[in-house]
Specification:
Helices cover about 15% and strands about 30% of the residues. By secondary structure, the chain is of the alpha+beta class. The protein has one domain (about 25-150). The chain has a six-stranded antiparallel sheet. The chain has a three-stranded mixed sheet with strand order 2-3-9, with no helix packed on it. The longest helix has 10 residues, at about 130-140. It is globular and about 50 Å long. The model has no long low-confidence stretch (mean pLDDT about 95).
């Protein structure tokens, strides 16, 4: 079922919200690029960096995500949809896990924006991305599209 439009401020910017159409068990996908992979001498290998959980700057900036249910309801293969340059892998959360950690999970479609590819399945996660919360996010996520020879934590 298509999602209702998100709330917007007077400038048309999406207001942080918990979208009622994003259900508790819905998959929330965060894409990862090579920039999110670092070498960790403690594990003598590569792992994902906490920079993966840096929200966008700017007014109402959140963590850019893709909404798995909406992608699949459109008849697309979610793993293919979220894997395109520069994104080489992705991790997945369940919406209720993020909400239980105090985050808001909302809908923020990207449509007709200059220099951005349309993504009607785009969402945002808003909240406090402290060092402790980032550590917790690594514990909660799982690979959606694994990056070869890279560990989550």
């Amino acid at each position: 079922m298509p999602l209702n439009p998100p709330p917007r401020d007077a400038n048309g910017v999406v207001i942080p919200h918990d979208h009622e159409g994003i259900l508790p068990n819905d998959g929330i996908i965060r894409r990862a690029s090579k920039q999110h992979v670092i070498f960790d001498p403690k594990i003598e290998g590569n792992r994902l960096s906490s920079s993966l959980f840096e929200p966008s700057s700017g007014h109402n900036g959140g963590l850019s995500v893709d909404l798995q249910s909406q992608i699949e309801e459109a008849g697309l293969i979610a793993t293919d949809f979220v894997t395109n340059p520069p994104f080489i892998g992705s991790i997945r959360f369940i919406a209720c896990q993020l909400r239980e950690e105090g985050f808001k999970v909302g809908y923020d479609p990207i449509l007709n924006q200059p220099n951005l590819q349309d993504n009607p399945y785009h969402g945002e996660v808003w909240g406090n991305f402290s060092k402790a919360k980032k550590k917790r996010l690594f514990q909660l996520c799982s690979w959606f599209v694994p990056i070869e020879k890279v560990s989550i934590q």
